[in-house]
């Protein structure tokens, strides 16, 4: 943790959220909304990128669209959980129908996209708090 | 003496010989002896009459010896064997012996030999006098026996001197024989006439006939014994049936002997008369009673009845050679006559029997039969004829048929023309199913008229009462029609109406009233389905007056239209009778319709209950049984007309009941089939509805996804503009975009919610009050903005429910949102929570505009909405969620009077 500590900046104090979203308009909007909430937001546009990102530079939380070209959301989710099981992944999707099944996946939360992003924001708050808490515990 | 003189010399004595007045052997022999006295040397002369039996029998000859005694010739001995005479008779040549004393007496000494020896005869001349060539040819001959006490008296010369006279003597003896035969025949003819006259009087009893005959034969001929033995050819026995005389062994009439033995057996077998004139020397004679030596001669004659020997007439005599030819002849005739009389008697008796038999046959025939002469007058009529046409038998004979039978039958139904036809052609004519009287509706006759082949023709009239056959055929036709009608009907109620119509309609069975019960096997209950019939005589009169139908079909049409029923008042409505299994089984076992008069006599309380339905004197109970299953029962009566229900009616009803039961079984099966089909169809409809919904859901999900992303982006950016822009016009315009996007999002959400399957409900024990209060928090702002006051009234001891909290919140959220929207002018939204039985009730009530009744009905249908902007799915989803909680939701509203939704959920199990 030496390096990280040396690079301490206001940016570095903000929780880092990886948003995986294939539609650019949506991705930028989410970034806008979440940055306003005070998160550091990284954007990737497909599953492979997301996995590479998680491997190289693990974020505090992942917001993952399910329906994507190439490696789809579910596969990506499984890979991420494999690599970094401690990172909460929020499934963020236009499909409300899958909600009943998401528990069988290893996602932390299932959020149906809505234009006010209230549900997403609430879910992030909830899971970041918990993971930060656990991190604190870990450090303690 | 000249030659002529010599020739003529005997003429005188011959004349003397022939000038007989007494034609007896005794007188003739006396004269012949005197005539020969000077011509042949002799001390004595005996005459032997030799006779050969006219019928078969023994002995070959009978010798009757006549000798002078006490001044005249007398018949002294009868015997059958004599060595002297036998040789003479065999050779038909005279013989002489010079000295008889030189011969030892032959072992079988005959009476002839003994007589000569007793007279001390030494010289003997025996000369046969035969009419024909020799003795054996004639039925009789006379042998002259000269004797002299001195030896050597006879020689050829003496014989030659005698031979001259022999033809004359032969002639004389022949004349005597003929004369005597004639005399005998005359006597016999009288006897035969008397006996046959007496026998004919006993024509019809062969037993009495034989008795009378033997009695007379014995009396008139003075035989020792006369008997008749009947032949039993099957047993091959002869049985004594009649006897008269003194034969002691025949005193009791149970003498039986075999046909294989004795003279009687021989005669029975051969069918020929047989005489044993000396039974001791007869090969056939068997004496069944050996110590009896009384019988010396026996004559047996067959009695033919037709071609067969039916009996044997047996005549016994104590004397040898008792049966002279004439006697045998006479008795033979008599035996033949007796047979003919017996046969005639039997024939007449047979004829009488036949006649009697005919009469009896005619009387026992089911048809009425009359014999008519050529003038169509009655010669004979059997008892059926008398009964059918109610004739007086004493005044029937020779009355014309047209006066005896009803004139309608004779003239109008064609009997007369039948006679006319038969006058032209031979043969038979027939009339079928004709009426006796025009008014007689039910009775029918088949008439057959036959012309005999006699000249002039006679007629045989045969009349058969075919009423029952016609009735039966009509009944069959009716039953068939009824059955066809019933089979055509598959609707149970219509069928019940038709069945009762059949039972009650005039052209049907015409019973006054009837009620039909169907048996409910599960409930063990007889349930009344239909009843027909008036309740009073007045009503009956009114109704029956108004029924315009004649034909059964008209009744049926009416029954199908179900208007007869409205005309006829039903005397009991929907009675139900409970029955035990045993009673039902007993009813099934009875099978046939039966009458019940006295309810007390019935052991089954079911039958008593059915009987109690009617106050009539008797009711008929018809079990409806198909394939051994009791389907129901019909109870019918003749309350009004009080007409008795007879056995024939019961029989026909029985046939009808089984047809009705079959039709009913079909209809019931059809009904079950129909119900099953309907259920199947409904299931199919539901399935296709679900399939439809599932497809819609999938489509919606895809559409939603495709729409939601851009929608979220649109809404999101508009919101960002609103939040960050300082350009007021832009913000105002962005706000419009945002609002519309949000509305679209809401619709999307609802569609998605409705479409998504409830596969993973998370049931927990939930407090409804808490849940409602959380919803209130969410809607509080919206309520305040709409000037709506929220009230929560929760019972203090409210039990928890098992629910998916999120879903249940959605329910109350939907209802609350609707309520607020229903109160544009503001108002009160009340949540009322209280327990009720095993349930928890939640009411959501507003004071808003209310819902019209038409809309209320469709309120929970998907895509139905009263709002301008709505998916129409909110309440459908609500209902679905509630139903997934095994709860109910209902709405109560009136336009302008507010709306109240009531949800009932089962309380959580402890």
Which key terms come to mind for this protein?
heterodimer, A: 140 residues, alpha/beta, Rossmann fold, five-stranded parallel β-sheet, 6 helices, 5 strands, 16% strand, disordered N terminus, disordered C terminus, B: 910 residues, alpha+beta, Beta-Lactamase, 5 domains, seven-stranded mixed β-sheet, six-stranded antiparallel β-sheet, 27 helices, 31 strands, rod-shaped
How much of the residues of chain A is beta strand, in percent? 15-25%
> Can you tell me the CATH architecture of the largest domain in chain B?
2-Layer Sandwich
**Major β-sheet strand ordering of chain A:** 2-1-3-4-5
Q: Looking at this structure, what is the CATH superfamily of chain A?
A: Response regulator
CATH topology (level 3) name of chain A:
Rossmann fold
Classify the beta-strand content of chain B into a percent band.
15-25%
């Amino acid at each position: 943790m030496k390096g990280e500590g040396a690079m301490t900046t206001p940016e570095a104090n903000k929780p880092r959220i990886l948003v995986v979203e294939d539609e650019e308009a949506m991705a930028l909007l989410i970034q806008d909304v979440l940055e306003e909430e005070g998160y550091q937001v990284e954007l990737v546009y497909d599953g492979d990128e997301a996995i590479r990102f998680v491997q190289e530079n693990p974020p505090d939380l992942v917001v993952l669209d399910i329906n994507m070209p190439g490696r789809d959301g579910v596969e990506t989710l499984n890979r991420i959980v494999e690599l970094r099981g401690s990172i909460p992944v929020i499934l963020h999707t236009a499909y409300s129908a899958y909600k009943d099944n998401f528990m069988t996946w290893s996602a932390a939360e299932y959020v149906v996209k809505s234009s006010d992003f209230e549900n997403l924001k609430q879910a992030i708050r909830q899971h970041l708090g918990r993971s930060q808490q656990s991190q604190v515990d870990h450090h303690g | 003496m000249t030659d002529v003189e010599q020739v003529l010399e005997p003429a005188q004595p011959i004349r003397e010989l022939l000038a007989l007045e007494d034609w007896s052997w005794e007188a003739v022999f006396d004269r012949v002896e005197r005539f020969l006295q000077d011509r042949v040397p002799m001390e004595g002369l005996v005459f032997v009459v030799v006779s050969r039996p006219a019928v078969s029998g023994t002995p070959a000859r009978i010798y009757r010896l006549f000798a002078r005694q006490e001044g005249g010739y007398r018949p002294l001995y009868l015997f059958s064997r004599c060595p002297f005479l036998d040789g003479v008779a065999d050779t038909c040549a005279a013989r002489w012996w010079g000295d008889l004393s030189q011969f030892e007496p032959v072992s079988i000494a005959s009476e002839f030999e003994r007589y000569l020896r007793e007279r001390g005869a030494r010289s003997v001349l025996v000369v046969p006098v035969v009419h024909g060539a020799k003795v054996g040819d004639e039925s009789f001959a006379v042998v002259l026996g000269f004797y002299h006490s001195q030896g050597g008296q006879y020689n050829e010369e003496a014989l030659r001197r005698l031979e001259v006279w022999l033809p004359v003597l032969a002639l004389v003896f022949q004349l005597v024989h003929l004369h005597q035969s004639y005399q005998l025949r005359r006597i016999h003819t009288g006897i035969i006439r008397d006996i046959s006259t007496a026998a004919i009087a006993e024509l019809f009893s062969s037993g009495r006939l034989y008795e009378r005959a033997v009695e007379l034969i014995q009396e008139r001929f003075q035989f020792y014994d006369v008997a008749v033995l009947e032949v039993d050819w099957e047993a091959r026995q002869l049985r004594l049936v009649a006897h008269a005389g003194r034969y002691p062994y025949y005193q009791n009439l149970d003498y039986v002997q075999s046909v294989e033995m004795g003279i009687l057996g021989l005669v029975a077998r051969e069918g020929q008369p047989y005489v044993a004139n000396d039974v001791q020397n007869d090969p056939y004679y068997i004496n069944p009673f050996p110590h009896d030596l009384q019988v010396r001669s026996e004559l047996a004659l067959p009695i033919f009845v037709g071609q067969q020997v039916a009996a044997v007439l047996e005549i016994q005599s104590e004397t040898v050679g008792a049966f002279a030819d004439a006697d045998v002849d006479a008795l033979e005739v008599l035996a033949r006559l007796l047979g003919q009389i017996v046969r005639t008697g039997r024939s007449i008796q047979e004829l009488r029997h036949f006649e009697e038999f005919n009469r009896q046959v005619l009387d026992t025939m089911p048809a009425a039969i009359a014999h008519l002469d050529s003038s169509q007058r009655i010669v004979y009529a059997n008892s059926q004829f008398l009964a059918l046409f109610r004739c007086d038998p004493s005044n029937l004979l020779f009355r014309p048929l047209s006066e005896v039978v009803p004139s309608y039958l004779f003239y109008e139904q064609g009997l007369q023309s039948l006679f006319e036809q038969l006058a032209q052609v031979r043969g038979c004519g027939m009339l079928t199913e004709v009426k006796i009287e025009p008014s007689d509706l039910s009775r029918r006759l088949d008439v057959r008229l036959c012309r005999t082949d006699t000249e002039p023709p006679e007629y045989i009239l045969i009349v058969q009462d075919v009423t029952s056959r016609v009735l039966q055929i009509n009944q069959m036709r009716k039953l068939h029609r009824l059955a066809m009608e019933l089979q055509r009907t598959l609707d149970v109620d219509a069928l019940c109406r038709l069945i009762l119509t059949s039972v009650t309609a005039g052209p049907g069975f015409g019973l006054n009233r009837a009620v039909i019960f169907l048996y409910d096997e599960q409930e063990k209950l007889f349930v009344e389905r239909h009843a027909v019939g008036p309740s009073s005589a007045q009503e009956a009169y009114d109704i029956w007056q108004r029924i315009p139908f004649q034909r059964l079909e008209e009744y049926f049409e009416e029954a199908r239209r179900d208007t007869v029923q409205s005309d006829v008042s039903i005397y009991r409505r929907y009675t139900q009778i409970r029955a035990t299994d045993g009673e039902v089984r007993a009813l099934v076992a009875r099978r046939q319709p039966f009458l019940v008069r006295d309810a007390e006599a019935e052991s089954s309380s079911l039958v008593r209950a059915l009987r109690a339905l009617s106050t009539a004197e008797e009711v008929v109970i018809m079990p409806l049984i198909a394939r051994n299953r009791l389907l129901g029962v019909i109870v019918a009566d003749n309350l009004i007309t009080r007409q008795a229900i007879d056995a024939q009616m019961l029989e026909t009803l029985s046939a009808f009941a089984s047809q009705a039961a079959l039709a009913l079984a079909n209809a019931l099966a059809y009904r079950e089939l129909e119900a099953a089909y309907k259920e199947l169809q409904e299931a199919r409809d539901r399935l296709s509805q679900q399939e439809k919904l599932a497809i819609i859901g999938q489509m919606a999900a895809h559409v939603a996804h495709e729409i939601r992303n851009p929608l979220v982006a649109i809404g999101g950016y508009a919101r960002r503009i609103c939040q960050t822009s300082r350009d007021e016009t832009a913000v105002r315009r962005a706000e419009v975009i945002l609002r519309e996007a949000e509305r679209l999002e809401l619709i999307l959400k609802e569609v998605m919610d409705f479409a998504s399957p409830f596969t993973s409900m998370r049931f927990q024990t939930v407090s409804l009050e808490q849940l409602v209060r959380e919803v209130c928090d969410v809607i509080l702002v919206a309520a305040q903005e709409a000037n709506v006051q929220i009230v929560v009234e929760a019972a203090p001891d409210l039990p928890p429910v098992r629910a998916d909290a999120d879903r249940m919140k959605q329910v109350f959220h939907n209802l609350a949102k609707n309520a607020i929207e229903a109160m544009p002018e503001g108002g009160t939204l009340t949540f009322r929570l209280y327990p009720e039985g095993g349930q928890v009730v939640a009411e959501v009530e507003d004071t808003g505009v209310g819902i019209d009744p038409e809309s209320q009905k469709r309120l929970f249908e998907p895509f139905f909405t009263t709002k301008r902007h709505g998916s129409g799915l909110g309440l459908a989803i609500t209902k679905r969620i509630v139903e997934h909680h095994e709860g109910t939701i209902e709405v109560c509203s009136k336009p302008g009077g507010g709306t109240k939704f009531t949800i009932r959920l089962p309380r959580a199990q402890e």
